[in-house]
Design brief:
elongated, 4-stranded antiparallel sheet, 10 helices, binds flavin mononucleotide, 275 residues, Alpha-Beta Plaits, alpha+beta, two-stranded antiparallel ribbon, single chain, NADH Oxidase
Length: 275
Amino acid sequence: MAQVMINKEICTGCGLCVKDCSRNAIVLLNGKAEADSELCNECGHCLAICPFGSVSMPLYDADEIIKFDEEKMSIEPDKLLNFLKFRRSIRQFKDKDIEPETLNKIIEAGRYSPTASNRQMNRFIIIRGKLNEVRDVAIKTLYDMGNDPSCIDKASWSLYHKAWIKMYEDYKEKNVDRLFFNAPAVIAIVSEEKAGFADVNGGIAASRMELEANSLGLGVCYIGFFKRAITYNKKLRELIGMKENEEFILCFVLGYPNVKYQRTVNRKPAVVRYI
Ligand SMILES: Cc1cc2nc3c(=O)[nH]c(=O)nc-3n(C[C@H](O)[C@H](O)[C@H](O)COP(=O)(O)O)c2cc1C
């Protein structure tokens, strides 16, 4: 089935889709737009730009398309920048579940992220029911790594091994969770397969999901330690239901913050070169 259908009765041949197609996949034939399926990467620019609504993508759900509305779709830039600056990693959470519709909005933010060549290979794993089991295995794995200097590069091991051993001891002796911070959910982003830019695609999605979560009153903390653990202990891959060819990209904990910040923080000055 063609990715892009052009209703020839509505198409006026204005050429806006031809000009905006990054793949050169649309041409004008007899004054009407015509798409080449082999070149198309389903980015949807033609559908978005057509002033007459003559483009459709039959492989996708037409009902999810939203018509442009300035009031609903524009953001005040200074407010956005302040919002970005005020964002913090959250490591203290309320004992409160996240509503399914709230989770869905966060997934939507990830789903609508740009991906290289529009390959859309990000997959989202929401860890809730199995969270305790996953935490148990991950913290024990980090403990094992703390005792295994060959598990990663020397510099990283020197930096983290004591923290990992202490994390395990505190968890066992005092029930303190320094991995997931007792958050009610963890979201892992995996790529459908190993591919160029898979990590960048996942990182972009995660960042947008974090901001959407923040806007919904939730807090997020990326957990790089979990990626270390899952790389070392393949059992964790199975535990979180990863498929054979999937590549783990990153994860974050998510929940309602039990902490309130009063101000933004400092950062090193930006190092910028104009050339
Ligand atoms: C890729 C990545 C991995 C991270 N891994 C962890 C982690 O394993 N545990 C943790 O407590 N924080 C982790 N963080 C959070 C950073 O420590 C935090 O972003 C940084 O200290 C700056 O604080 P802020 O996010 O509040 O601005 C991670 C952040 C990123 C971007």
